[in-house]
Request: fold
Amino acid sequence: DTGVSQDPRHKITKRGQNVTFRCDPISEHNRLYWYRQTLGQGPEFLTYFQNEAQLEKSRLLSDRFSAERPKGSFSTLEIQRTEQGDSAMYLCASSLPRDTLYEQYFGPGTRLTVT
Amino acid sequence: AQKVTQAQTEISVVEKEDVTLDCVYETRDTTYYLFWYKQPPSGELVFLIRRNSFDEQNEISGRYSWNFQKSTSSFNFTITASQVVDSAVYFCALSDFSGGINYKLTFGKGTLLTVNP
Reply:
């Protein structure tokens, strides 16, 4: 049973560049979440998909951020014109809803450093 | 608005000591879920427990136990006979049902637990 995978694990980019991260959820998990975690803080919700539909976006997700899940499987998170404040760990999670609430399974994260 | 407060930023104990991590939450919802996650140095969040707002029974799993008290809006986590491998950051999180389908998690800032040999 493979878990949630994220690629790349680390990304260093210069301010102003665009970056894209990929998340592969656990097979058959139809819900996929993106969170951002800065140093010394807990993860903060960014956005959420059910299948290919993006159902909610946080106010943290500025216009420079866009997320997609085109076929309801893997997802990408793109940041355009990166800023130093974007430096963080970007976490992906997936889940399979049941009658009662489920748990979210998290990937290892992509650590972004903007120089 | 939801909020989770973990007042203890860091805790350091010696192996075999018991340790309790505090979590206080705020929500206007009557139906909600509470979670604890562990984040070891490797960085991956590991699910530990889920509790719904209608079930105030305490739970024990091996050396781990959880105390949920709605009257004080607290969901505390105790590790008995701590071990070095318990060293990690522990997060308490809250999920509500606003809008009926919104299951996003609101996390606290975490407590860094260091267990020394």
User: Anything to note?
Assistant: The longest strand of chain B covers residues 88-96. Chain B touches chain A at residues 4, 33, 35, 37, 42-47, 50, 52, 91, 93, 95, 101-110 (CB under 8 Å). The radius of gyration of chain B is 14 Å.
